[in-house]
Amino acid sequence: MPWPSRKRDKGAAADKKEPDAKIAKTKEETSDKEEEEKPAKTPAGSSTSGWKNWKKTKESEAGGEESEITYCHWLLKSEPESRLEKGVDVKFSIDDLKAQPNQTTCWDGVRNYQARKFLRAMKLGQQAFFYHSNCKEPGIVAIVKIVKEAYPDHTQFDQKDPHYDSTSRKENPKWSMVDVQFVRMTKRFIPLSEIKAHHLAHKADGGPLKNMMLFTRQRLSIQPLTQEEFDFVLSLEEEKPH
Predict the structure, then answer these.
(1) Strand runs (DSSP E) across the chain, as ranges?
(2) How far apart are alpha carbons 125 and 131 in whole angstroms?
(3) pLDDT tens, 172-213?
(4) What is the number of structural domains in the chain?
(5) Is 163 inside a domain boundary?
(6) Which domain CATH number covers 154?
(7) Prediction pTM value
(8) 140 backbone dihedrals φ, ψ, rounded to 5°
(9) In this structure, are residues 190 and 237 in contact, taking their beta carbons and an 8 Å threshold?
């Protein structure tokens, strides 16, 4: 049985607000946005120089050529702490995923058109960061992979579900979901504040996180990552926390 719906979006400011987007991740979006707007101190001698050292390594591996920018990885937000929406606890942490049969389950409840587009673009085997959101310290805790590509989200037809959509028809489902499977925990927790410090440094020097959607479209709970973005963030697990 799938877990209670807890992954969902209200469109970013530029998106149109659809009347059928029943449960919006308002608290999550607000919490993350407030966290992101706090001044982040760039770790002394680490963010900018770290990017330059990382770039040299990547260029050396590629024979001096930077890789082509494509979206081939993802970042998925979920809430690790209990919160009720229409009587349903939307909590779902990485431990909850690990407790599922085969450590696999569906990523349901998405009710934003941009996020739906990203869901439908996911390919079998692609990896994603599992991101704890709407909590005291948001950040990346694990890596998961896509084990089933987009198919109709059953919660849109369930009148008891907070994400029920009366306008969706089974012959033409409006919303999709994918199945994800736990791969491994990151070697350490990578907090939003640390990622933002690198993002700010990269905006100045052209590093891989300069356009990371976690900061340019932070309200989306499903976000694409380029290979460079994914590789750089993953490299942070090898560094000592600041």
Answers:
(1) 71-78, 84-85, 88-89, 104-107, 127-132, 139-152, 176-191, 222-226
(2) 18
(3) 999 999 999 999 999 999 999 999 999 999 999 999 999 999
(4) 1
(5) yes
(6) 3.10.590.10
(7) 0.76
(8) -90, 130
(9) yes
